[in-house]
Design goal:
It is a single chain. This protein has about 325 residues and is mostly helical. Helices cover about 80% and strands about 0% of the residues. The chain contains 13 helices and no strands. The radius of gyration is 19 Å and the shape is globular.
């Protein structure tokens, strides 16, 4: 199996690989002193985020598109789903602000690179999904410090300046470096050569960063989990509930207000979250204290991948497919 195939396999099977990384981190963290892993958080964060930014094409943001669809996505992504996650977190994790933070972060940063992939697989509007991905990253990065500080800042002592500074390091600097790298490689290889030889590798490289960061997060929290093993299940079911609610709301919005292709883009552009950046922010801000939030986000990876694949199969039942003109 060559490098490209190996990376593609890892990305495609994250829902299996991540629980394995969780188990490995748990065993490692309970078998030895793991304080030295704290120093790995920042480089792993960069290894996770930077490859994602190399392939982003900001110029597509300015292409003519469906303004109504983009506004609907913005409304769901920033006026609806974060508050559902916050309310659910307060309800199911009373007195546990770090678990509440994990659930909130799972709803704050739309959308993942897989948004475009899943939209394409479901025969949705891919150009609009690309636009949602770029808009979601930029807006989410801007509003996350405000949301976290306003909703949970008092509970976990996260001032808005600290969150904004961390997002600058984790998102903005890799974005600038990634765009510089992408531009240089595109000029050297040509657009087609870049897409064929580099761009296809980027999701897999980022996935390796995710796996290693999950391993570190669980290892640092392993002894606390061992002392409270029920934490594993109590963090899983709220994530399932959150995604179920989000899928239902996005599906209803898509069904009643948009044609099939746009509706599918709306669902995948609002339910899918950029969990990689969320995990990076949590771990870089909180270190070992972020282990509980990281556990919630790890389950979100598993649920997101599985639910997205499942939704591709059932989405034709929900939306009006365009009629085929008679021959």
């Amino acid at each position: 199996m060559n490098v490209r195939a190996s990376l593609a396999f890892i990305t495609k099977n994250l829902s299996i690989v991540l629980p394995v990384a969780m188990i490995a981190g748990f065993l490692f963290g309970n078998s030895m002193e793991v304080g030295f892993l704290k120093s790995a958080v920042l480089p792993l964060t960069f290894a996770l985020v930077y490859p994602m930014m190399v392939g982003i094409e900001i110029r597509k943001l300015f292409n003519k598109g469906n303004a109504k669809l983009q506004l609907a996505a913005l409304f769901l992504n920033f006026a609806v789903f974060p508050f559902i996650a916050f309310g659910l977190g307060r309800l199911v994790f009373p007195g546990a602000p770090y678990l509440q933070l994990g659930l909130l972060m799972a709803a704050l940063l739309p959308t993942s690179g897989m948004t475009v992939t899943w939209t394409g697989l479901s025969k949705g509007n891919v150009p609009e999904a690309v636009r949602m991905t770029i808009v979601g990253l930029l807006v989410g990065s801007a509003v996350t410090p405000v949301y976290v500080s306003f909703l949970l800042g008092a509970s976990i002592d996260l001032p808005i300046a600290a969150i904004a500074g961390q997002i600058l390091v984790i998102v903005v600097l890799p974005l600038l470096a990634g765009r510089l790298t992408g531009g240089l490689l595109t000029r050297k290889l040509g657009k087609e050569g870049f897409d064929r030889s580099v761009k296809l590798l980027l999701p897999g490289i980022s996935s390796i960063g995710v796996i290693l960061l999950v391993f570190v997060a669980i290892a640092l929290k392993a002894r606390a989990i061992l002392s409270n093993p029920a934490l594993i299940l109590t963090t899983l079911w709220p994530v399932i509930v959150l995604y179920a609610i989000n899928f239902v709301i996005s599906t209803l919005a898509g069904r009643f207000f948009f044609a099939s292709a746009e509706a599918k883009a709306l669902v995948y552009g609002t339910v899918m979250r950029n969990l990689s950046i969320a995990l990076a922010i949590v771990m870089s801000l909180l270190g070992p204290k972020g282990g509980e939030a990281a556990l919630v986000l790890t389950w979100a990876y598993v649920v997101q991948v599985q639910s997205a694949a499942w939704y591709v199969r059932i989405s034709p039942r929900f939306f009006r497919e365009p009629e085929t003109p008679p021959m």
